[in-house]
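2024-03-11 09:14:02 INFO worker-7 job=invfold-0412 stage=load source=structure_tokens
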């Protein structure tokens, strides 16, 4: 509706990818599978899920029949994340498909709270607004957890914090329902949930753009590809007193990547918005394991897989991880081509 009202879409009219009815209908096809439960997919094919430590519910997917097994890592979490439990140990599999988001990078070992406090304090001192594009599941909760800790220790001023993501607000409560799947206590879950004012309606979201700083606004999406954060960027990115803070991976071609790489303007809702705000990145808030953490996780295998396939990363990152696995572990490893088919013997 917004695109049609303001006429910035190339589609006439702009139509949704799916409707509310489509979404509700899809829910009937979902089934809950417990970690460690064998799911029979056919007479000989079994699937089994184990926690990958990335976000709540994220899982390694093991497929096996009577002759071979394949593990799909999906996103691999970090071993010492303050909120999520460590990724499950895997000791053997015939074939491995592994992610490589940070296949060519190491995360800064410094405490991310220090960098977060420095950015918030500097922005607050100039009366600015900290806009944080954040993934609704995982990063938003980590930020709330850290902001609460910083306020509690009086490391940052007690300025307003807004969580403008209905999905993130719902996820906050999911942490209470799944206490065994993360490190937080019930009390810490309460503190995290109460660290921000929840923005529910469109009117409340618009009202934020009329407020003056200092304040912190956390909103999806994490790469600024859509969501309510776009309206906040439109309102606050042109002001040099403000800060746009990215706390997760920014894929090439996204607005987030453009801003991180120094773009002077980005296109939002059909017009170019100047980026005069300070743009900062805290990489070590990412929920993805870096290459060293991935290699440590692979070190738990009793024997090498017959073949390891490196996927889910920019080309340079995927090839860098392939090289490290081959050189440091001596495993047979490759980066498959797009749409390549491989027969597993």
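2024-03-11 09:14:09 INFO worker-7 stage=emit residues=345
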């Amino acid at each position: 509706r917004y695109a049609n009202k303001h006429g910035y879409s190339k589609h006439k009219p702009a139509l949704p990818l799916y409707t509310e009815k489509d979404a509700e209908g899809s829910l009937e096809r979902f089934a809950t599978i417990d970690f460690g439960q064998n799911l029979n997919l056919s007479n000989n094919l079994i699937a089994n899920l184990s926690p990958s430590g990335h976000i709540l519910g994220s899982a390694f997917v093991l497929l096996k029949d009577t002759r071979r097994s394949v593990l799909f890592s999906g996103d691999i979490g970090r071993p010492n994340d303050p909120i999520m439990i460590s990724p499950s140990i895997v000791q053997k599999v015939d074939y491995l498909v592994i992610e490589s988001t940070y296949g060519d990078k190491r995360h800064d070992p410094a405490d991310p709270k220090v960098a977060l406090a420095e950015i918030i304090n500097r922005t607050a001192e100039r009366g600015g607004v900290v806009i944080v594009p954040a993934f609704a599941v995982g990063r938003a909760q980590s930020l709330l957890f850290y902001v609460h800790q910083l306020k509690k220790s009086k490391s940052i001023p007690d300025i307003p914090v807004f969580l403008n993501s209905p999905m993130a607000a719902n996820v906050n409560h999911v942490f209470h329902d799944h206490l065994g799947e993360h490190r937080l206590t019930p009390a810490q879950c309460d503190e995290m949930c109460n660290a921000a004012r929840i923005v529910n309606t469109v009117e409340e979201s618009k009202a934020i753009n009329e407020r003056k700083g200092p304040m912190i606004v956390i909103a999806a999406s994490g790469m600024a590809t859509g969501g309510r954060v776009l309206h906040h960027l439109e309102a606050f990115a042109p002001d040099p007193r403000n800060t746009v803070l990215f706390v997760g991976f920014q894929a090439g071609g996204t607005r987030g990547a453009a801003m991180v790489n120094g773009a002077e303007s980005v296109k939002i809702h059909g017009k170019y918005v100047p980026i005069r705000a300070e743009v900062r990145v805290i990489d070590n808030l990412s929920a993805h394991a870096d290459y060293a953490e991935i290699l440590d996780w692979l070190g738990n295998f009793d024997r090498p897989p017959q073949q390891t396939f490196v996927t889910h990363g920019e080309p340079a990152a995927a090839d860098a991880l392939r090289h490290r696995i081959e050189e440091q572990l001596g495993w047979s490893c490759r980066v498959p081509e797009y749409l390549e088919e491989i027969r597993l013997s």
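2024-03-11 09:14:09 INFO worker-7 stage=report msg="The domain at 31-106+288-334 is CATH 3.60.15.10 (Metallo-beta-lactamase; Chain A)."
2024-03-11 09:14:10 INFO worker-7 job finished
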